[in-house]
Design a protein that fits this description.
heterotrimer; A alpha/beta (310); B mainly alpha (320); C alpha+beta (401); A: 310 residues; alpha/beta; D-Maltodextrin-Binding Protein, domain 2; 10-stranded mixed sheet; two-stranded parallel ribbon; 32% helix; elongated; C: 401 residues; alpha+beta; MetI-like fold; 2 domains; 6-stranded antiparallel sheet; 3-stranded antiparallel sheet; 13 helices; 9 strands
């Protein structure tokens, strides 16, 4: 009995050693190898932003235009794949970028927050919001609360939070203290009112930080977050699902609203910018890439790494 | 009406004990009927949704051609929500191929592990192992997915590199098969073990008395008698392999055309296709997932029928 | 014993041992993975803390009395102290891996001990920053806000240059799983109450009462087919059938724990039926005939003689069921939703531990450590349940024997 356990433990540790060794297997980068292309699925706002940014907008929702043999993964999947796959290329939101992968400069501009703010880094997408149509909230307090929240987004206090969570807020003027007198609803006890937030999951973290910072300022309303994707942002506030049990009071979209998603005047707007970064494995010799090269990689013109003129 | 009265009279005429018997039988019977009808509800619901793409014009996109759908080698030709050119033929092949490969790994290992736990291991070790197996069946599939993308993908990628193949980050048929084998291993082991344990002691003793060794008895008599249970475990194992979505979508690579038969090719299964982008809730790209659901149900049904047929064939040559 | 036979024996024994070893290896590496990734975040606070942090918003009225306390000498290198404001801050990570600034020391005469609550309508209300609070941001009247992302050192530097503060936003530590833990327990209870009687009754009916005819066979194969239905499809059914059903008959107005439990109960039926039936099959017919011969009727025989012997099977079924409930995510995502809650009600949405993991994995960037920690907690719960049920069944069995 004891012998079996000892043998087992030895074998497990042996297995792990082998695993570790494999990880550290250092092979130099071979530019004659083919490029493995990673992408998000067609419902992803990041993908739409990326494809539009590289001038390949047709491929945002059309897989058949992409190079054959591409790999579809979610955000985390692309990040972990790029740690492992020396010959892969993918894209993520700037907020998710860390030192386990290499973020490529785009058209000669490094992917940094400063470069997004000074408008030199051009691979970016807007973060938008949409609220229900006037008079469609079920209660006046709820409507006023939602509008107070939107007003909060435009204050310095709101943009501080957006900034802190890694996105780039639009320029804000005034503080919540300056405008709170205009929102009397916040003086009431709102602890029995539930405001439902939904739409893009890329904006979920920011939206949660905003609502939890704002709720105590405004009568302690309850914020319920259920983020399922950009296309649900409009659909669940003013679109086909606005009266279903999935209905939301505030929806977000991490892309421009489509022509079919134009709601009542004054119910939509932008709260921030987010940059998208093309990423590769740390061992890759590439440090920068142009818009044309990225398009050529994604449409299959460039098949191996040495095709890219650095 | 008369019949009902007659029935009441018969019930009233019986003793209290017998009435309780009838009542209990009724309750049990109704339970069984409800349990059995759930599958019918599911089938009706999915069929209604899943047939829509083939019979309606899908808001101007045109009907989905069912023949093309069933034999297609590309999932979607054109942009999502603006094309009706769907095909799942290659995905069906991928799904069955992957399920069978993973059964080929998990089945022998699982059954032999069950045999080890039930008949060979000392009591303490077998209690320990059984607990381990029970614990593993409770691990959420997303954790298997994490393990798959954190460990198995790395191993597959490095192994492929060693044998000179450039795999796509390890996302491959073999990685999917390994994850699914791991996931169905606890199920197969647990059910097989119950089956092996319930083989009558007399059969075993009979075999030993006839001069067979312990090992011979285990393999030729015990396993043979537990066949029915072992096949049940195989059915459950295949069910898990065919139906798993979360973990598979993390390691398969989700290819959009195929079929993928090479072990290091990226692949996709019916479930991973259904799961992808399921955030959308209206339109053809959503409805078509129910059609994939129907295909999945049919694939599972056929697999079950075949396995049940084999089970009956094999089971009839019982040693009893 | 012939040589060939011996060799055969050794060979067969060998493959049995190897198989068992492979299973143990494969399975233990999953344990190791979960443990290595998840153990760093495991503490009791995690179990009992709320998921959502509580926000406080402090401001100053009138003149500020600055702190006179010099820097305490027991501060570490990564703690930064402002002697004017009497507060020490340091950089840390919260449970989701986000950078935070935590209050590591605050002096008694710090101005932060005497602020008014900007969130309250009452101007006189006062609030106090405590050690362990997280400073989310400090904003001033005429310069840019000090934010978490710029680090503790800069925040202290900024503080040292100002004499007035517009507002301080600080929070409690969130990221706990109390709500999800509670939800999981609710769901387990509700689902078992629904599924166990139904499943056991069906198994008894099929094995003890039903005649061997085509209808019984049909019922059996219908139930067997249920085992192969993937959980996504159950989830869709839950969304389409059980959610509207529960909204109609209870006070719920959206997907809720009851609709989730009903969906899970359907998923569990075949598992419970099969396990119970397997153990019923093993019971020798002698037991039944003996009971009947002694004058017991069918009901008595079933409840007094057959069921107790099937007890181990039912326990196995329950265990497998609990395991499945805890592990299920795909179906629940549809049947309950993914909103993580601290106040759990069976008529509202909230997440089980598994769906909590799923929600964490969906975050950008995903938090594998916390996900693994929750997986580890799931394993611990299952282990505890396992041991508990085994103890109970042991007692039960010795009682009836």
């Amino acid at each position: 009995m004891r012998k079996i356990i000892i043998i087992g433990l030895t074998l497990i540790s042996a297995l792990y050693l082998v695993g570790c060794d494999n990880n550290q297997l250092d092979t130099s980068f071979d530019a004659t190898k083919s490029i493995t292309v990673y992408t998000r699925d067609t419902s992803s706002g990041t993908r739409t932003g990326f494809m539009n940014g590289i001038g390949f907008g047709d491929a945002a929702e059309d897989n058949s235009l992409l190079v054959s043999g591409f790999v579809t993964k979610d955000n985390t999947g692309i990040l972990t794949a790029m740690k492992n796959d020396e010959y892969g290329i993918g894209f993520i939101s700037l907020a998710s970028l860390n030192n386990t992968v290499k973020g490529l400069a785009f058209n000669g501009v490094e992917p940094t927050i400063a470069n997004v703010i000074n408008n030199t880094y051009s691979l970016k997408r807007p973060f938008n919001y949409v609220i229900r149509a006037d008079g469609d909230y079920g209660s006046l307090d709820k409507e006023n609360l939602t509008k107070a929240f939107i007003a909060f987004l435009g204050t310095i206090d709101g943009s501080d939070i957006i900034n802190d969570k890694g996105a780039i807020p639009l320029s804000a003027t005034g503080t919540w203290d300056d405008i709170k007198a205009e929102h009397n609803v916040c003086l009431k006890d709102n602890s029995n009112i539930v405001i439902k937030f939904g739409g893009s999951d890329s904006i979920e973290k920011i939206a949660k930080a905003l609502s939890s910072a704002f709720a105590p300022k405004c009568g302690g309303f309850i914020a319920e977050h259920d983020h399922t994707g950009s296309s649900d942002g409009f659909k669940r506030t003013q679109g086909s699902e606005k009266d279903s049990d999935n209905a939301k009071d505030v929806g977000f979209a991490s892309r421009d609203f489509k022509d079919t998603e134009i709601g009542d005047i004054g119910t939509q707007g932008q709260l921030a910018w987010d940059a998208i970064v093309a990423i590769v494995n740390n061992r890759n010799t590439l440090n920068a890439i142009t818009q044309e090269s990225l398009k050529s990689i994604y449409d299959g013109t460039y098949k191996v790494w040495e095709d890219i003129n650095q | 009406m008369e019949k009902t009265l007659e029935c009441f009279k018969r019930i009233l005429g019986k003793s209290k004990k017998e009435n309780i018997d009838i009542l209990i039988r009724g309750i049990f019977g109704i339970s069984a009927l409800i349990s059995a009808s759930v599958i019918i509800i599911i089938i009706i619901f999915i069929t209604i949704k899943g047939v829509t793409p083939f019979i309606s014009y899908n808001q101007g996109l045109g009907q989905v051609n069912i023949f093309r759908f069933l034999t297609g080698r590309v999932w979607l030709d054109g942009a999502a929500f603006s094309s009706s050119l769907y095909g799942v033929g290659f995905i069906i092949i991928n799904t069955v191929y992957i399920a069978l490969l993973s059964l080929m790994i998990s089945m022998p290992i699982g059954v032999l592990t069950a045999l080890f736990i039930a008949k060979v291991a000392p009591q303490r070790l077998s209690i320990f192992l059984r607990t381990v197996v029970e614990l593993l069946s409770a691990i959420p599939s997303i954790v298997y997915g994490l393990f798959g993308s954190g460990v198995i993908l790395v191993l597959v990628y490095n192994f492929a590199e060693l044998v000179g193949i450039q795999s796509k980050g390890g996302n491959s048929v073999i990685a999917t098969v390994l994850v699914l084998s791991l996931m169905s291993l606890p199920t197969i082991t647990a059910i097989s073990e119950v089956a092996i344990r319930s083989v009558g002691k007399d059969i075993e003793l009979g075999s030993l008395a006839l001069g067979a060794t312990k090992t011979q008895t285990n393999f030729k008599v015990v396993l043979a008698s537990a066949k029915s249970g072992i096949f049940a475990s195989a059915i459950l194992g295949v069910g898990r392999a065919l139906g798993e979505a979360t973990a598979v979508s993390l390691v398969a690579g989700n290819s959009k055309s195929g079929p993928s038969l090479g072990l290091f090719d990226i692949t996709s299964t019916l479930t991973s296709t259904m799961l992808e982008g399921l955030k959308e809730t209206t339109g053809l790209d959503y409805d078509i997932r129910f059609s994939v659901g129907i295909v999945l149900m049919i694939v599972i049904l056929l697999t079950n029928i075949i396995l049940n047929y084999v089970k009956r064939k094999v089971g009839s040559v019982s040693v009893k | 014993m012939s040589n060939k036979r011996k060799l055969n024996d050794i060979f067969y024994q060998f493959i049995t041992y190897i198989s068992a070893l492979i299973s143990v290896l494969a399975l233990s590496s999953i344990f190791m993975f979960v443990f290595i990734k998840g153990s760093s975040l495991l503490d009791f606070g995690l179990l009992f803390n709320d998921y959502h942090e509580k926000y406080y918003n402090g401001g100053f009225n009138g003149d500020i009395d600055f702190s006179l306390t010099p820097e305490p000498d027991n501060l570490e290198a990564n703690e930064f102290y402002s002697s004017m404001w009497g507060i020490a801050l340091k950089d840390a990570k919260d449970r989701e891996g986000n950078a935070i600034i935590i209050v590591s020391y605050i002096s008694k005469d710090s101005p932060f001990s005497n602020m008014y609550d900007k969130n309250s309508v009452d101007i006189e209300s006062s609030i106090v920053i405590k050690e362990g609070n997280i400073v989310s941001k400090i904003s001033y009247y005429d310069k840019p806000t000090s934010l978490t992302r710029y680090g503790a050192e800069l925040m202290i530097k900024d503080l040292d240059t100002v004499t007035d503060i517009r507002e301080v936003v600080y929070t409690s530590l969130g990221g706990g799983i109390r709500g999800s833990l509670l939800t999981t327990l609710f769901i387990i209870g509700l689902t078992l109450v629904l599924a166990l009687p139904m499943g056991i009754f069906t198994a008894i009916y099929l094995n003890e009462f039903a005649k061997k005819n085509k209808i019984t066979n049909l019922i059996r194969s219908l139930i067997e087919t249920l085992t192969g239905v993937p959980s996504i499809i159950y989830g869709l059914m839950g969304l389409a059938v059980f959610v509207p059903f529960t909204i109609a008959i209870t006070k719920a107005d959206s997907a809720n724990l009851i609709s989730g439990s009903m969906t899970l109960a359907v998923i569990l039926l075949p598992i419970i039926i099969r396990s119970t039936e397997e153990s019923l099959k093993v019971i020798p017919d002698d037991l039944r005939t003996a009971s009947l011969a002694l004058g017991a009727n069918k009901t008595q025989t079933t409840f007094r003689a057959v069921l107790p012997s099937a007890y181990p099977g039912i326990v196995t079924a329950t265990l497998l069921a609990v395991g499945r409930i805890i592990g299920e995510s795909a179906a629940l995502i549809f049947a309950i939703g993914t909103a993580i809650k601290d106040d759990v009600s069976i008529f509202g949405r909230s997440t089980t531990l598994s769906v909590h993991i799923w929600s964490l994995m969906k975050d950008e960037p995903a938090n594998i450590e916390l996900a693994s920690t929750i997986a580890l907690i799931i394993l611990i719960i299952v282990l505890a349940l396992n041991i508990l049920v085994k103890l109970v069944s042991k007692k039960f069995i010795t009682k009836i024997v």
